[in-house]
Amino acid sequence: xxxxxxxxxxxxxxxxxxxxxxxxxxxxxxxxxxxxxxxxxxxxxxxxxxxxxxxxxxxxxxxxxxxxxxxxxxxxxxxxxxxxxxxxxxxxxxxxxxxxxxxxxxxxxxxxxxxxxxxxxxxxxxxxxxxxxxxxxxxxxxxxxxxxxxxxxxxxxxxxxxxxxxxxxxxxxxxxxxxxxxxxxxxxxxxxxxxxxxxxxxxxxxxxxxxxxxxxxxxxxxxxxxxxxxxxxxxxxxxxxxxxxxxxxxxxxxxxxxxxxxxxxxxxxxxxxxxxxxxxxxxxxxxxxxxxxxxxxxxxxxxxxxxxxxxxxxx
Length: 315
Ligand code: C5P
Hints:
alpha+beta, seven-stranded mixed beta sheet, four-stranded antiparallel beta sheet, 11 helices, 13 strands, 28% strand, globular, binds cytidine-5'-monophosphate
């Protein structure tokens, strides 16, 4: 019997590197990025009851206009040819407007949980297409771990796990608008900078962990919110080996050589909320999902299956 209720994690992401190349005819920007899931997470408790009409109730968080959780549930049920009552208790820990993909991760969590609750597997490619409709970052959260994102971020390729880190994420109360950040950066994009960026990014990814080199949004977003530059300086000054803003901001993270370094940095930046974190690699990401949904098969099937959820071996 499939469970009808499950409590699932929705992890945040950071961008280990992010290059904006050019504005496309569809008004999105072509980008190259390395996504990474981290241990900061929302939690969703989802329940599904078959019914003639679909309804979606979300509890536990103030009303969010155009909530991606509701849109994800409705789109998926429509595509599966099902209807029913979806009830979701959402415990938010990932701040919004922070470049951490919180809303996108919540939406992906709905796409992964509902097929298991309903007991009807869905091709991963369908989930990825639905995810891309909901937002550029959503498909990444179907896979997690370390991944290369191309296009508008929805075209994904798995990368080897980035080495584990002792991270500190600083989340100042600054809401950075993604469309505004793209607008601001658009003006400065030239064909010369495009070629340079492509070559540099290619080199960074080939050379792996040691050479990733930050985020193109920092210039325009730091100009608007100078305190973010101050936070990055603070993290580096406290001993971070690497620091960058995530996505279009406003959160800034640092990687430290030791737990003491993380603690010292949090103290140095005590006026801001901060969260120590570690990286969530792809196998762990999938394993946590498997545990949450009661899957008992091999992890190999979980990471390479073409349908979600994979069948339990005894079924
Ligand atoms: O895809 P998503 O809904 O997350 O994007 C929000 C907004 O960010 C888009 O409407 C667009 O203005 C901008 N965007 C962009 N290029 C991307 C991703 C997002 O211009 N690659």
